[in-house]
Amino acid sequence: MKKLHLFLLLAVMICGSSFAQTNQQELHQLMKDRGEYYFSLPVNTSDDIHLLNKLCSVDKTDGQTAICYANKQQYEVLVKQGYQPTLMTPPSMLVKAAMWDGSNRAEYDWDSYPTYPAYESMMFDFETNHPDKCEILTLGTLPSGRKIMIAHLHNGSTDGKPKFLYTSTIHGDETTGWIMMLRLIDYLLENPDLTEVQEIMNNIDLYIGPNTNPDGTYHAGNNNVNGATRYNANGVDMNRNYPDPHSSAHPDGEAYAQETQWFMQLAQDIPFVMAANYHGGAEVMNYPWDNSYTLTADDNWWQMVCHQYADLTHQVNPSYMNDYNNGITNGAQWYTIGGGRQDYMNAYAQCREVTIECSNTKLPSGSQLPNFWNYNKNSIFAFMNQCRYGIHGIVTDAANGQPLEASVTISGHDDQYSSVSSHLPAGDYHRPIKGGTYTLTFTANGYLPHQETVTVADGETVTLNVQLTEGEGILPDFTANPVDV
User: Fold this and answer.
1) Which DSSP helix (H) or strand (E) runs through 357?
2) Is pLDDT at 4 greater than 60 in this prediction?
3) pLDDT single digits (tens) 142-171
4) Which of 194, 215, 224, 298 suits 9 as a labelling partner, its CA being 20 to 30 A distant?
5) How far apart are CA 194 and CA 188, in angstroms?
């Protein structure tokens, strides 16, 4: 009966009826069955939003109304505390999603959503068809049987190259970036003669995770994305589930989800230089911090690279990504959240990660998906290439030439979260930065500190290799995480 009840409700929505006007009691039953509530609440101040974010997940706000999600427990607490939510149609139930269940990638036109079997098959086919350029990393298999998969793209030689991570759909009902990232993998593998592809494959060690919350996306079953949820299968908002440098180890009060643990481990194992995580529900570049009004040491660099991304989309469609400050916003100045992956990666993984809100509609109709690729494609490439610019080099032992792990700090510029390190096996370090003149200090345990001053322009790569001499040095802090995973 439950399945029939949900089917009838969905049929009413698809036929164009205004489900938002459906009796709140029926909406409540629907959301109780789903295990996730979607609603609006009035707000008056930023303090109201900050308090709400401690009780549930604020998705967006215009300063007067907050659109929120909650699991069953969170919703019950809200109601007990006197809040009166207005339930709304879940975004994943507003349109009938076109699905693709084929096995031949050549027949897929990027204008529908793959079923889970088709998605998994497509990912592993990338590896099978291009074994010299692509390997699929399975971070783990969830109890549902669904996998968290990362495509590792390279030209066969990865040591010494900056490592870049693209991911999407940490919120399972925000699906635009998922298809764009699948298409990016395909584009890079199927167009080896294009200069823009060669620049990426030859110079960047690239990782792409198209869907990092498949249990949320396929909440209604492996063959349908209608009914997708924001939270994972255990009712956890995974973009509130990370240790927070400005709050606590568990700002959402939840244990770390399995998916969260896998990604924290990935960040420990692979020293990513830059990353971006695609979301939906808005169209804006959201740069750190998300949970502190203090600006990062590289705020001017963040504004530059985010404006570049937004400006390139405007060349394709001037009305796309043009809200806020011409398409960019500081996260906390928009509204604060705790436990976000962006702040975690920037603070604890030495990785400059940004949140890219890539579509106002969380789950667009399939026919609209090619448009978003067209809007974002040039920006996607430009943002990847930013990890190639700035100051780069290798740190070695002056006596024997062996590569070293060392801390690389910019005097008078860096704060506790902005310095970087060189990493084995190559001893390479990578420091994206706004154009200027900087003094870098290199420190390693058992070696004398060493300083170098360099000048770099925007969009320029300066190579600065350094040899350290043995002596009584300073022990650098290589801690990547505040917790064990």
Assistant:
1) strand 352-359
2) no
3) 999 999 999 999 998 899 999 999 999 999
4) 215
5) 9
Q: Look at residues 225, 223, 221 and name the one whose alpha carbon lies nearest to residue 171.
A: 225
Whether the CB-CB separation of 334 and 286 falls below 8 Å is answered with: yes
pLDDT at 101 over 70: yes
Residues forming a β-bridge with 363: none
Band of residue 239 on the pLDDT scale cut at 50, 70, 90: very high
Q: Is 50 exposed, middle or buried (0-12, 13-18, 19+ CB in 10 A)?
A: middle
Determine the Cα–Cα distance for residues 70 and 57; give it in Å rounded to an integer. Answer: 6
Query: β-strand 407-410 against 436-443: which pairing, if any?
Result: antiparallel
pLDDT at 483: 52
Rounded Cα–Cα distance for residues 350 and 344 (Å): 9
pLDDT of residue 27: 92
Q: Which residue has the tokens 């709304």?
A: 88
Each residue of 280-333: pLDDT tens digit?
Answer: 999 999 999 999 999 999 999 999 999 999 999 999 999 999 989 999 999 999
CA 177 – CA 217 distance, rounded (Å): 12
Please report the DSSP string for 265-326 in residue order: HHHHHS-EEEEEEEE-SEEEEEES-SS-SSPPTTHHHHHHHHHHHHHHHHHH-TTTT-STBT
pTM of the predicted model over 0.90: yes
C-alpha 26/C-alpha 180 separation (Å) is 35
Smallest Cα–Cα separation from 385: which of 199, 166, 149, 181? Answer: 199
Q: Is the pLDDT of residue 227 over 90?
A: yes
Which of 386, 431, 376, 351 is CA-nearest to residue 165?
351
Tokens representing residue 100 in the block: 């693709």
Helix (H, G, I), strand (E, B) or coil at 234: coil
The arithmetic mean of pLDDT across residues 43-57, rounded, is 91
SS3 per-residue string spanning 61-127: ECCCEEEEEEEHHHHHHHHHCCCCCEECCCHHHCCCCCEECCCCHHHCCCCCEECHHHHHHHHHHHH
